[in-house]
């Protein structure tokens, strides 16, 4: 085990500095017309130690949508005024550089700021309606499809530091800090305020985003990572696949057991989506597949995102779009777009994953750095201070050993995968897991051991380990995966009868299994056991 740990001592590097108390860098905004909004703001401030003077109740219109005038008069200007009055930031003269080092103009800008984040609580509107009365000088030079001034509240409010010098409302504004690897640059003095919201179908769900984030920070962020690509060749859309593929590579790099689906369609309802830490996929208009099941096995701290133009057009719904249903099913943080952003205007989830999981950014920082465009359509839902990758993987593992936590099973897999990335063989890792007492009672570790046997070309050992996993109280979706896997292994081993029993057991345990018809057809293709004529045998024995 000592060698096992030494291989991962420097695998996750944190390269940015953080405040002693991150809550000092936050302002919390709630709708003073809603008691639930205020209660959530106060709860978050307590949990994250946000100074009380930085919790603002604003008299904001109810509903998920607001006019441009309401945004300006009820949220944008009152917030800027409070920040100045409380000396949370200070404005002054600054130069806007021109080409070749020449000075283009002198502007008013934020020159000092104590805060970097603004958290919008349930009850603060989600999107800004199009205002047809606004005309801008250079709007006519823009591409026709971008001549729009509707926007996500979050994305528009992120530009608050720029309002002193002014910027065009029509179309997107380029984020100069897109894909930065230095989190400290995401700062109002550089023209950007990090925005995220605590929101969802209900106030209770919004509150749960904080509780689950804190739980994952305290106990670790564990589970499996799923990436659902389209395998698309069209150059106009291929970038979406590239982003998701890049994210999958980051997940593998930091030690997650990772599933990458290359089929053109999204995961089917029969897909055994178990113990989900991360999900990223595209491009279905409404929530579908395994996410329609009564329970989705999202782990505490999980992130899920589905790329679609209207994935977050409402956060109050639970049965269409994506962001609302994912939140209702238990995800801890997500992103989405409230209106048509066009593909390059959606978050680059590859950039997000690298900054959140590898560089150790907070969720808010990573989400902000993943957006190529601001004053546009993206909303960010979750605790922006959530930072599950802020501790070295080895340190987390040692603390779990000391506390005798059952979560050691997940940490072992994480460290094992990290060690495999560094050159450890499947046989070496299997030997370590075999010797762990916890493996004898862990469905997570025993299934991992079976996978390692498969990697070594040891089918009999793999089958025995998968069978043993079934006796160790796997989760419902994990059990389905095990039944399906065993069926495939039995067929490969030319044992159709055991394959038949595995598939039949799956249907018996899951009477509502969505692919039951397909499964029965598969069962019917398996070679049946030869029938024994009992009467004939009896007659033969008498003679």
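^ structure tokens above, recovered residues below v
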């Amino acid at each position: 085990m000592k060698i096992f740990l030494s291989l991962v001592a420097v695998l996750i590097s944190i390269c940015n500095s953080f405040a002693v108390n991150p809550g000092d860098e936050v302002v919390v905004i709630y709708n003073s017309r809603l008691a639930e909004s205020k209660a959530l703001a106060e709860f978050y401030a307590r949990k994250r130690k946000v100074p009380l003077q930085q919790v603002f109740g604003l008299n904001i219109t109810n509903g998920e949508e607001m006019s441009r005038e309401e945004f300006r008069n009820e949220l944008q200007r009152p917030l800027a005024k409070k920040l100045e009055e409380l000396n949370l930031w200070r404005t002054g003269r600054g130069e806007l550089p021109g080409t070749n080092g020449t000075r283009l103009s002198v502007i008013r800008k934020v020159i000092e700021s104590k805060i970097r984040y603004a958290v919008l609580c349930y009850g603060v509107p989600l999107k800004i309606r199009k205002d047809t009365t606004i005309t801008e000088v250079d709007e006519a030079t823009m591409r026709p499809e971008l001549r729009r001034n509707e926007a996500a509240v979050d994305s528009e409010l992120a530009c608050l530091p720029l309002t002193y010098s002014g910027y065009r409302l029509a179309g997107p504004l380029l984020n100069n800090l897109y894909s930065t690897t230095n989190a400290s640059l995401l700062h109002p003095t550089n023209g950007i305020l990090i925005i995220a919201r605590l929101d969802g179908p209900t106030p209770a769900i919004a509150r749960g985003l904080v509780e689950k984030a804190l739980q994952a920070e305290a106990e670790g962020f564990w589970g499996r990572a799923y990436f659902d690509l389209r395998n698309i060749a069209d150059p106009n859309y291929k970038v979406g696949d590239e982003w998701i593929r890049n994210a999958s590579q980051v997940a593998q790099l930091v030690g997650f057991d990772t599933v990458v689906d290359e089929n053109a369609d999204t995961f089917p309802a029969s897909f055994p989506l178990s113990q989900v830490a991360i999900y990223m996929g595209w491009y279905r208009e409404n929530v579908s597949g395994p996410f329609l099941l009564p329970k989705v096995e999202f782990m505490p701290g999980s992130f899920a995102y589905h790329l679609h133009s209207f994935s977050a057009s409402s956060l109050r719904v639970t049965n269409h779009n994506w962001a609302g249903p994912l939140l209702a099913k238990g995800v801890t943080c997500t992103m989405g777009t409230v209106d048509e952003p066009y593909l390059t205007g959606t978050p680059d989830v590859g950039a997000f994953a690298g900054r959140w999981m590898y560089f150790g950014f907070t969720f808010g920082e990573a989400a902000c750095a993943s957006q190529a465009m601001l004053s546009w359509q993206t909303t960010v839902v979750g605790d922006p201070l959530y930072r599950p990758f802020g501790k070295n993987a080895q340190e987390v593992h040692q603390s779990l050993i000391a506390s005798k936590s059952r979560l050691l099973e997940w940490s072992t897999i994480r460290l094992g995968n990290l060690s495999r990335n560094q050159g450890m063989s499947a046989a070496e890792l299997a030997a370590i897991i075999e010797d762990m007492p916890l493996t004898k009672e862990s469905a997570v570790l025993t299934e991992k051991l079976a996978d390692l046997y498969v990697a070594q070309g040891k089918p009999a050992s793999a089958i025995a380990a998968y069978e043993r996993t079934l006796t160790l109280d796997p989760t419902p979706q994990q059990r389905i995966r095990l039944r399906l896997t065993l069926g495939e292994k039995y067929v490969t081993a030319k044992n159709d009868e055991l394959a038949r029993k595995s598939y039949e057991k799956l249907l018996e345990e899951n009477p509502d299994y969505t692919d039951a018809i397909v499964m029965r057809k598969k069962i019917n293709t398996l070679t049946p056991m030869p029938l024994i004529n009992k009467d004939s045998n009896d007659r033969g024995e008498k003679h």
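The two ends are 66 Å apart (CA to CA).
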